[in-house]
Amino acid sequence: MNERQIWAARLRAERQARLWSLKDMAVRLNAAADEPTRERLPHAESLRRMIRSWEAGEHRPSELYAELYRRAFGTVTETAFDAAARGGDDADGIGGFVVADSVLTLDDEERLVRAARAPRRLDSAVIDSLAVVLAEQRRTEDRIGSVPLIAPVRAQLAVAEKLVSDARGPLRGRMLDLGGQWAQFAGWLHASAGRWAEADRHYDRALQWGSEVGNADLIATALNMKGHLAWLSRTAGPLISLSQAAQRDRAVSHGVRALAVQQEARGLALAGEADSTDRKFDEAAALTSRAAEHPEDEPPWIYFFGLGYLTLQRGLAYRYLGRYGEAIELLHRGLQALDPQARRAEWAGAYILQMAIAHAALGDIEQACSAAGQVADIADQTESTRLRAQLLDLHRRLLRVQPRHSAVAVLGERLR
To answer: Are 337 and 375 a contacting pair, CB within 8 Å?
Structure first.
């Protein structure tokens, strides 16, 4: 996703966060104009097509329409329009169904807006459309990072909460399941952005809704993601025990169990237990292969998982065990197994950073700085404050050991 597409997606999110349809947006832009300007505006259907084109990233609004957006969004200082243009995370309202233009039809979008405004309109078609939105949000996060999606997903989760609250009969189970997935995704976004307390709260909600509907995969995933928070703080005890808890129910899919097993393996690596780490990774590899044989049995939120991802995790564990050469080889192999777009994702940047740290530990400063430069590009593209903070920490460590190295100086300039 290029810069214009990212900007267009955020502009669309601003509209949808207010539960405005394309027709509503056209009416509000028209109403925001003074009388002489209004006489020069195209008729409503043409204006709606223009809005659709802007939100698809085909064109950017002129300054005239930018000003009308500012007035329509009702801000005085920094505007919602400008926040969309710079990638801000301050959308308001309770909608925010930002998806690629080709994913939902206009009828789908209008149905979602109506359901968000009046939750009693919930039906199977609305739930199907919501599932499409969530799937696209997951892949959008792969392209643009976590922070830009926090506001839209927060808004979407608020709608999901209303729909869960009002759902009855057979629809309630489906909505609980989808709402739990949304809460889990919101937790992931907050965790990636360093907002751990918020992430934990969302994982608790996912655990609650997953338990209510009896979704073993969702329950295990919520437990595993709470373990991931322990990984982020490098606390091996809860990391290992929560990962083990996620494996306990035999109804959990092979893929979800594999994710929990490999996370337990990383916890064992933190604890310095090398033999147990290898044993658990071998178990995770066997489970991953079994999951690949029947992908239809796996939940939609582990679309990213496979042997390539598992290779990355083993490389990460080996880095913590001090097996730097093996770590570099595994991390490189795992990254090469990803498609080119995935290698530019925020989460992939974290593994390239680990490769840079391993190179630095071996005294290969040139390779460490080269890898760090790749991470800096990803951090800029995805606006990842977490990656940038980690890069700055790495640069400080490189300065302590090689203060005069030219590659360290170049990296420092890159990070200014």
So the answer is: no
